[in-house]
Amino acid sequence: MEVLTIGSLARLLERHPRWVLAAVLLLTILFGWGIKDLRFATDVKDFFPEGDPELEAYNQVAERFGGIASIVVALEAPDIFEPRALRSIDRVTARLTEVAGVRTVRSLTNVEELRAHDGFLEVAPLVGRLPETPQEVEALAARIESDPLYAGNLVSTDRQAALILVQPEPDADAAEVADRIARALEPERGLLPEGMTAHLAGMAVLNRASSDAILRDLRLLVPAILVLIGLILWISLGGRGGVLLPLSTVALSVVWTFGLMGHLGVPVSQLGAVIPVLLISVGSAYGIHMTARYHQEAGKLGPGSAARGRLLHNVLRHVGSAVILAGLTTMAGFAANAFTPIVRITEFGLTTAFGVGVALLLSITWVPALQAWIPGAGARPGTRAARWMDSVPARVGAHARRHRGVVLVTTMTVVLVSLAGLGRVRTESDFIAFFPPGNPTRDAFDFIAHEFGGADTLEVMVEGDIQDPELLGRIAAFQEELSRNPLIYNPMSVADLLARAQRVMHFDDPQWERVPETRAGVAQYLLLLSFEGQDLLEPVITLDGSAARIQARVQALDGQTRREALAAVEQAVRRHFGAAPAREAEGVRVTVTGTPVLLEALERMIVRSQVVSLAAAFVAIFVVMFLLTRSLVHALLTTVPVGLAVLVSFGTLGWTGIPLDIVTALVASIAIGIGIDYSIHVYSRYREARRSGQGVDAAVQEAVTGPGLALFVNAAAVVTGFMVLLASAFRPLQYLGVLVALTMVTSLLAAVTVVPALLHVVDGRRAAAPTPAGMASPAERK
Amino acid sequence: MLPHARPHPRVSTSILIVVLTCLTAAAGAGAAGTAPAGLSAEQILDRVEENLQGESRQSMQTMTIVSGTSEVVRSLEIFSRDDDALVRFTEPADVAGTALLVRGEDMWLYMPVVGRARRIAGSQKSGSFMGSHFTYDDMSAMGYQEDHHAEVVGVETLDAVRAYKLSLTPTGESAYSSLLMWVDAERFAILRIDFFEEGDLVKTLHASDVRAVDGRWVPFRLEMVPSSGKGKTVIQIQQVRFDVPVDDGLFSVRTLERGR
Is there a contact between A532 and B69 if contact means CB atoms under 8 Å apart? Predict the structure, then answer.
């Protein structure tokens, strides 16, 4: 069947290479057309599947309370109350208010308060007139620092930072608003007094910075990797054809893949830059095999041969099935990500599997068609470099055979050390950690985290009869407990406003600063607070009094403290509102959400995703290897190298402290999908040798020596390709580059040392026995 | 009122005016006969405002504010005479009795739970009126004539009613860059106003259910809809009377605190 197909493919390629070329070009245009529709999705929310309860909770709170402020400007100054600093805050606030798509801007200089002023009750700006004299400055500072409603909220307690909170319109693209804010801020930076700086942070800002970084990565990394892989091809295969044919297949597969993403509306996430790196470094291998074999076969036939049809047929039959098998395992490894709960990882797995499929398809259509069309467009093997590369795996293999004990001890040591590191692996879901310190966005987040706890807020929504003083009392007590926790900053709720209103109505007597005791009292103070519009109330209570929101900042410097803070919040929820069933019975619902909660949920998903994709990849690979080997034992031992590679990558995560995140979580499936190729090549040669009647010893030797060049070039291309990621703007992508390189080296080394050793052990005992019939794949049985 | 740290334009009296006065026209004018042809914008606005300053008025109305999935309905009773007004909430029960007294520039608030009246400062013109989609500015329609440059830009049919279409440009400080106003050509009641900020439509007022009351044409339903389409405020008049005799003591802090 397969031979038939290959035969007709060979005939088609031989007779009508132009048709094939034209078809490929046409499809390239059709797919490529989709690239213009590509968009970015970098928000933590974008990683959740639709309908995810955590995501729904977030959207619900945002919808009921008119959005969640996602852009934060922090101004840093030696003393924020100094008149010039205050004027700057005022000016920047005014400037940001004018930016299109901005719903509200809140800062020290424009926030309004309800107060008693000279016997009048009024809602007026907290800072009426900007202070001029040192006395006025001190008076203002004393007033704000003594008021728990404002101290440490819009101004840090050390007086060195002020926040300007920007909430985009609910239907505006927050990242675009962030972009406009950044541009509006630019001229303002120059006007800031000496020693004063502006920091821009918040989820929308992070998303914008991430999109920029992805774009930069794509522009920088893709050409870089094409050049480097081209160089490797030139050194190993030589000749224009040897370089251009494999490179053209990968370039086309990148275009098809991104084009398909555009057509299907699959966005480019932080994982986006990995796609071309992966496709180019993996895909070039298929072209390499086809090109190299073409040249070999052409050499055998001699120039001007009439049997060119046979030539293509031979190339496709000999290399085709191996290339297809290698490609299929790689696709299976990537596609294993389809089972993860993280949408962007699922899409990544499927689109890269598609891209590998394209590279595979092109390498058996596009490449031979070009070769048929332009005779002599082959490689020029036999360079000195190529011969050296060819010999490396053989020499490593030979050493290993001589020192089996060393191989065994080394392997066991690596396994044990890696296992010991497993327990140390930590996870990370905060995308700001993607940027290294020194990056302006990262520094802005760190600065705000240091001064205010974090740029993004924790949101607790309490649904029920909020005008019920008993429930309000619980909200106030809950908030009070949060404010005592050193990891939680400035919780705010409607209880604060009601207490303040009651105090103000009672001649500013601090004794009255408490939640009103009757239902009528609550209703009347709410009415009073609404007199000036919904600005004061909208962020904390819905119009109909059916839901209240408590906002706080939680210490977000690292995942561990965030986890502790969120655990404390959950505990406080249970303490003040009871367990969920009891709450529901009383008609009270409590929802805890906000960016910190989403980050925490994503972190749990990363671990789940890792387990699922790892299991799926191993199962898929094992099934493929079983089909190839028709032997459970052989399938198992050929899977050992990728198992080792995965173990080493986790050990490395544990011992280096590189976190497991949405990017490094891909290492395992990449290592399995690509790493298995080395086992396949080694095993295929072993099987070929055995089938030709060689003994186990000779076959094991041949298995490593035979595919030497292909193994080496393949590994070199993947390692080089992924090392290019070291130039990425994202730290996890840099880590991914190193980790994949490490797993490639591990699986290659294991394939040429451990696999032969295991084959020797397993098959050695029955060395005299004839080749098991099951070892032949259907393709071999003519 | 004492000087404030940062001066705000204030319209203390507007709270009352809100309600109805602004969009009331003299019923007599339209009832007189056919629509006068070729009226100038000034003449049209004159007719609209002609009888706004009634001796006194009393009304009952509901204000429904819709925001997102949330809605709140409040009933108010309003007495006004010249620059004085008393606004008392009657529903829902929790806020019933809460009242505002406005005397010229001065304002007092009475809340039953506090049991005493407190003086309160006026509001910013462009601020929301009691959390609604109306601003105090929208309510104080008295100034259309004097604060705007007006011109007639056409005659259109609005819900089967012939209406003058006026373009108004503020001459002084305003939250809006311009207004488009449709005035019933027969009854001289305002039917619709489009509010523009920097040339962009921000909200639209629809006045409907125009009824004749004591010789005036009064729209009983006022609906303010922001152009975002999110939320709205509906003022529905239940009952309105003009030139009712008002006791002098009505507009006093004592009456306010007595809760009537």
Answer: no
Q: What is the pLDDT of residues A38-66, one digit of tens each?
A: 888 888 888 898 889 999 999 888 888 87
- Which residues are CB-neighbours of A217 under 8 A, at least 6 positions away? A272, A273, A728, A729, A730, A733
Judged by CB atoms closer than 8 Å, whether chains meet at B68 and A516 is answered as no
Distance to chain B for A529, nearest Cα, Å: 9
A543 vs B89: CB contact, 8 Å cut-off?
A: no
DSSP one-letter code for A770: P
| Neighbouring residues of A380: CB distance < 8 A, sequence distance ≥ 6 | A237, A238, A239, A242, A295
B98 reaches A (C-beta below 8 A): yes
- Chain B CB within 8 Å of residue A531 CB: yes
pLDDT (0 to 100) of residue A735: 95
pLDDT score for A726: 93
Would you call B120 and A121 a contact, using CB atoms and an 8 Å cutoff?
Answer: yes
Do residues A20 and A13 touch, judged by C-beta distance below 8 A?
yes
* Closest chain A C-alpha to B237 CA, distance in angstroms: 20
Amino acid identity, position A392:
V
pLDDT in tens, A340-382: 889 899 999 999 999 999 988 888 788 778 877 766 554 455 5
Nearest to A521 among B113, B119, B123 (CB): B113
Cβ neighbours for A47, distance < 8 A, ≥ 6 positions apart: A269, A342, A343, A344, A345, A602, A605, A662
- Could you read off the pLDDT of A756-765 as tens digits, one per residue? 888 888 887 6
pLDDT value, residue B15: 34
User: How many Cβ pairs closer than 8 A exist between chain A and B?
Assistant: 112
What is the C-alpha to C-alpha distance for residues A277 and A726, in angstroms, rounded to an integer?
12
The pLDDT value recorded for residue A773 is 41
Contact residues on chain A for B70, CB-CB shorter than 8 A? 64, 542-544, 546
Which residues have C-beta within 8 Å of that of residue A418, sequence separation ≥ 6? A647, A648, A650, A651, A652, A654
CA dihedral A118, A123, A125, A127 (to 10 degrees): 40
Q: A305 is written with which tokens?
A: 């041969």
Q: Chain A contact for B253, CB < 8 A?
A: no
Query: How do strand B178-184 and strand B190-197 relate by DSSP bridges?
Result: antiparallel
Could you tell me the two tokens for B230? 């999110």
Q: Look at B111 and A525 and tell me if their CB atoms are within 8 Å.
A: yes
Contact A520 B112 (CB under 8 A): yes
Cα A644–chain centre separation: 24
